Automatic annotation (TrEMBL):
PANTHER family: MANNOSYL-OLIGOSACCHARIDE GLUCOSIDASE
UniProt function note: Cleaves the distal alpha 1,2-linked glucose residue from the Glc(3)Man(9)GlcNAc(2) oligosaccharide precursor.
Signal peptide: none
Name this protein carries in UniProt: Mannosyl-oligosaccharide glucosidase
GO cellular-component term (any): endoplasmic reticulum membrane
Bias kind Basic and acidic residues: ranges: 1-22
Record flagged with keyword Transmembrane helix: yes
Organism the protein comes from: Nasonia vitripennis (Parasitic wasp)
Catalytic activity entry: N(4)-(alpha-D-Glc-(1->2)-alpha-D-Glc-(1->3)-alpha-D-Glc-(1->3)-alpha-D-Man-(1->2)-alpha-D-Man-(1->2)-alpha-D-Man-(1->3)-[alpha-D-Man-(1->2)-alpha-D-Man-(1->3)-[alpha-D-Man-(1->2)-alpha-D-Man-(1->6)]-alpha-D-Man-(1->6)]-beta-D-Man-(1->4)-beta-D-GlcNAc-(1->4)-beta-D-GlcNAc)-L-asparaginyl-[protein] + H2O = N(4)-(alpha-D-Glc-(1->3)-alpha-D-Glc-(1->3)-alpha-D-Man-(1->2)-alpha-D-Man-(1->2)-alpha-D-Man-(1->3)-[alpha-D-Man-(1->2)-alpha-D-Man-(1->3)-[alpha-D-Man-(1->2)-alpha-D-Man-(1->6)]-alpha-D-Man-(1->6)]-beta-D-Man-(1->4)-beta-D-GlcNAc-(1->4)-beta-D-GlcNAc)-L-asparaginyl-[protein] + beta-D-glucose
Pathway: Glycan metabolism; N-glycan degradation
Glycosyl hydrolase family 63 C-terminal domain: residues covered: 329-813
Length: 815
């Protein structure tokens, strides 16, 4: 302190001398002007440069990687795949692979149970309808599809066939056949509604064709830029009298078609003047309150009849198809029978289930599981909502199409990045053209940074199914890069076809794969070399028992209790090891430099380094590392006054100071990743220990598959918030069970001391999984999102014919 004050006196003394020294030269005014002339432009340029850099950073999140689109190389847009059942979110509908397509669809209801609030009117796939079952029984992704829907003991069989002669996919015919499954309801009435709609941005029009004698809608005609002139014709077959009505109106958008129908239903007296009324559509509703006329964009025909009944819909263009080739009546039935036979033959050739000794009912299940994945492919168009650290608010992504399968038609009828990598395993087994086009669409959604949004919500229909808080995608957040397992599978099983038909596309895809790999390698890296960390965990929340890691795909699976930058996530490290291995293989095929990727793979698969960073000596298991304590619980916050009763959510209470350590108290799927992705040395103690732990019932083993989290974990089957039930904390999930079975198959085929043990576990786990999924389908009518670890019961959303359909590959032993 004394020294500081002495210095102050010296400084003040010097300042006094300076002030009193009047002999110092004063800069001239011309010199000062010169200084200002130089300084001002520099300052302006600095500000401008700063603003430009800020703007540059703001626009990177929604700047496309390249204007050259991969889908222009894959060229699946026209002819054979142009039309399809590309509306997975509705029970039945057809559309084209165009941004603003003509769409058609089906609704139905039973007149005696329809509610004024819309309950009872079926349109969108939804679990609330409580249908006994529904789904495609056969679908080849290209030419035809057959679906069965069971609603209140009534079977609706929907089918379609395409005739791809001519331009833009040619013509198609659809049939809706309705029959009673119980003799006691054979006279039950049903109302079928088939509609045609266009969006406001569709360059075209639709108009009704009405028979004025019967006042019935017999068809729809129209014209669009892409289709040219077209018409739809309706043909009805029923053993009893038929009541018809129609609606011609303008709907606000495709997401409110059901609501538009409900607003335009009318109750009128029966024709025979009985007391029972009948429900009809309102007819033409185009005049607004101000007297102006709307242009129709939504036309519906309603057919009401007792069972059985059949509605045939024919879409035709001005094509060169002869009358003999047209798909209606007997021609349709014969063509459908031929396609079914061809499907059965191709299915056996692809998956060889009959050869493996499966029974007919088991093969039918496999056909259904596969058909629902390929029949669940949708075509979407729109602009996602994204955000980066440089944008104050969410901004729109560029408008783009997406051709993709979906996890669940009822609950997740849109594209998910990490799900799609698993879907590609099954789809590429059947049709490599389809899978390569799906990959092309996803990588056309990559921005200039190398980021792909993990969930694509495109178009009004998709947006209407997503809560607002989940719409925005943040560009720091990743998702497992599962397209690398798709590409690895294709290289293993479809290598010849890939190189003969898709080499040029692969060459165009490769730079995007490089950028995608680098984005992960840079943005998701950990604090230490060779470590990685999922971004997106909430450090501030006090509502979660263990802050979720949605970006990992494993949501509420327990990680370090207190998110920090020094976390090490073993699953992400293993994903990067796999990615580098696939990149090295692709580089060799395309004759590109591969050393970088080979070296990265060797580095990340080095078991000595892996064990040093992720092997817990306490539990002898692989684990994450981070700031962690198990001593946490959810409890209601203390209220200041007992007089005031406020229903507050439970908050997390930490009962012990967290420490940096291995998160080894929770053994589960994440612990298995070095094994699952075949990184563990086949001669190592680590492999022996994993195989031993794998079949312990107190850990993961059940008679129905591997549970996601050990029963010994502190958060096993625990709610993560007061309102969020356990998700990846016990239930059995097919995607990681499939990878585990594939890993057991791998280790059972290579030399090592644990080869026989891997083979034994492979046989048992594969059998358990297949048996339970088929049993639950037969019991409930559905394939499920996940399965209970105590009784094997189906849980979560249903039907879930995304990665649960990998059961087909387990049956076929394709890995």
């Amino acid at each position: 302190m004394r020294k500081s004050r002495a210095n102050d006196r010296q400084v003040k003394s010097r300042l006094k001398v300076v002030r009193e020294d009047t002999s110092s030269p004063v800069p001239s005014s011309s010199y000062q002007i010169f200084i200002w002339k130089v300084a001002i432009p520099i300052a302006v340029m600095a500000v401008a440069a700063g603003l430009c850099y800020k703007g540059y950073n703001e626009t990177r999140v929604n700047t496309t990687f390249s204007n050259e689109k991969l889908i222009e190389v894959s060229r699946l847009d026209k002819h054979d795949y142009y039309w399809g059942s590309y509306r997975p979110g509705v029970y039945f509908g057809m559309k084209t692979r165009e941004p603003f397509s003509l769409v058609t669809g089906l609704m139905w209801y039973f007149p005696n149970t329809l509610q004024g609030d819309g309950r009872g009117l079926r349109h969108w796939c939804t679990q609330e309808d409580k249908l006994e079952r529904y789904g495609w029984t056969k679908h080849d992704g290209k030419n035809f599809g057959i679906q069965e829907i069971v609603d209140n003991k009534v079977l609706l069989k929907t089918s379609f066939i395409k005739n791809t002669h001519g331009l833009n996919g040619g013509d198609w015919t659809a049939k809706i056949n309705v029959t009673a499954l119980k003799p006691s309801i054979k006279n039950k009435k049903i109302s079928l509604l088939f509609y045609t709609a266009i969006e406001d941005k569709t360059n075209g029009n639709i108009n009704p064709v009405v028979d004025h004698l019967s006042d019935a809608l017999t068809g729809v005609e129209g014209e669009t830029k892409e289709l040219g002139y077209f018409n739809l014709n309706f043909n009805i077959k029923s053993a009893s009298s038929v009541d018809q009505s129609y609606l011609i109106t303008s709907a606000p958008n495709l997401s409110v078609l059901k609501e538009t129908v409900m607003q335009n239903l009318r109750l009128v007296a029966e024709k025979d003047n009985t007391n029972m009324g009948r429900i009809v559509l309102a007819g033409e509703e185009l005049r607004q309150k101000n007297g102006k006329m709307l242009i129709p964009n939504f036309i519906v025909t309603q057919v009401t009849s007792e069972l059985p009944m059949e509605l045939e819909v024919r879409f035709e263009r001005n094509s060169i198809v002869s009358h003999k080739e047209k798909l209606y009546g007997e021609n349709y039935d014969k063509a459908l029978s031929t396609y079914e036979k061809q499907f059965d033959e191709r299915f056996e050739k692809t998956f060889k289930l009959k050869e493996k000794g499966y029974k007919n009912d088991e093969i039918k299940f496999a056909q259904l599981a596969f058909s629902n994945m390929i029949g669940g492919i949708g075509y979407f168009y729109g602009s996602a909502q994204v955000q980066s650290v440089h944008t104050q608010d969410p901004v729109p992504y560029w408008k783009a199409p997406l051709y993709s399968a979906v996890p669940s038609r009822s609950f997740f009828p849109r594209g998910f990045l990490w799900d799609e990598g698993f879907h590609g395993l099954l789809l590429s087994s059947w049709d490599l053209d389809i899978e390569m086009d799906i990959i092309s669409h996803w990588f056309d959604l990559m921005n200039v940074e190398g980021w792909i949004p993990r969930e694509m919500i495109l178009g009004e229909e998709a947006l209407a199914k997503v809560p607002e808080e989940f719409v925005t995608q943040v560009n720091t957040n990743a998702n497992p890069p599962t397209f690398f397992i798709t590409l690895q599978y294709i290289l293993e099983h479809r290598h010849g076809e890939l190189l003969s038909k898709h080499l040029h596309l692969l060459d165009k895809l490769y730079p995007r794969l490089q950028t995608w790999f680098e984005w992960y390698n840079v943005t998701q890296k950990g604090e230490l070399p060779s470590t990685y960390r999922w971004r997106g965990r909430n450090k501030q929340t006090n509502k979660e028992l263990n802050p979720k890691t949605l970006t990992s795909g494993l949501d509420d699976y327990p990680r370090a209790s207190h998110p920090t930058n020094n976390e090490r996530h073993i699953d992400l490290r293993c994903w990067m090891a796999l990615a580098s291995k696939v990149m090295a293989t692709l580089a060799d095929i395309l004759q590109k430099p591969s050393n970088k990727y080979e070296n990265t793979f060797e580095y990340l698969s080095d078991n000595r380094l892996l064990n040093e960073l992720h092997w817990s000596p306490k539990t002898n298991t692989y684990a994450d590392f981070g700031l962690h304590t198990d001593k946490v619980r959810l409890q209601r916050p203390n209220q200041a006054s007992r007089q005031v009763k406020v229903n507050q959510d439970k908050i997390r209470v930490v009962l012990e100071e967290p420490k940096n350590k291995f998160v080894d108290s929770s053994f589960g799927y994440v612990s298995l990743f070095p094994f699952i992705l075949c990184i563990v040395d086949p001669n190592s103690y680590q492999l022996q220990k994993i195989l031993q732990d794998l079949e312990k019932p107190e850990f993961l083993w059940t008679n129905y598959g591997l549970r996601s989290l050990s029963k010994s974990s502190p958060v096993y089957m625990q709610y993560n918030t007061e309102h969020d039930p356990p998700y990846w904390r016990g239930p059995i999930w097919m995607n990681l069970n499939y990878l585990t079975v594939a890993a057991l198959h791998h280790y059972s085929k290579i030399n090592g001391p644990y080869k026989a043990e891997a083979k034994r576990l492979y046989t048992e786990l594969r059998k358990n999984l297949i048996k339970n999924v088929i049993h639950q389908y037969k019991t409930t009518g559905y394939i499920w999102e996940n399965y209970g670890d105590t009784h094997g019961e189906g849980r979560g959303s249903h039907p879930f014919t995304g990665w649960t359909s990998l059961t087909v590959l387990l049956m076929a032993e394709l890995y």
